[in-house]
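Protein modeling request. Please complete all fields; requests missing the sequence field cannot be processed.
Requester role: graduate student
Desired output: 3D structure, token encoding
Chains: 1
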Amino acid sequence: MLTTPRMETERLLLREVQAADVQDIFDCWMQDEDVSRYMCWKASDDIEEAKGFVAFELEQIDKETWNRWMIVLKETNEIIGTCLVFYNDEDKENHWDISYNLGKNYWGNGYVTEAMKKVMEFAKRELGMTECITTYAKVNTGSAGVLHKLGFVDESELPYECNGGEIVTEGILCRYTAKNRTTEQKGR
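Delivered output (188 residues):
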């Protein structure tokens, strides 16, 4: 059985979710409407939401089809966000998918790209992922930049529900495949 492994990058530690992370998760992003604006979840000022998130994630730790990491700054040991690679079997086209979010105070430093490059390497090497499909809100240019640096290629526009489904905006479906490696190399 493969559990979510600890991994490191130059500036970051990627580690499993722990029960003690509730307050840090709540403070860093879960109650921040700017962070949730383009996410499938809605910001909440109720710490019970963070407790529920952690409880769910702790149940997933030993599943090969669900790997969530806390993004931690090595220098300060602060939790700054989270990232995920998972097998999406709820979609009509079963596929690997990714997700990530970062506390607003840490935006613009390349942390998500750094973390997700490591996650993509893991997914290809350990999970055998050869293709990954994800979507992002068209107006979320920061996320578009991360995905393109990872080697994802935009394919089509589609409706995109965000902020807990309260907002429907234009979205972009994009795909990573081994064929995209040339693009991925240019993004490094």
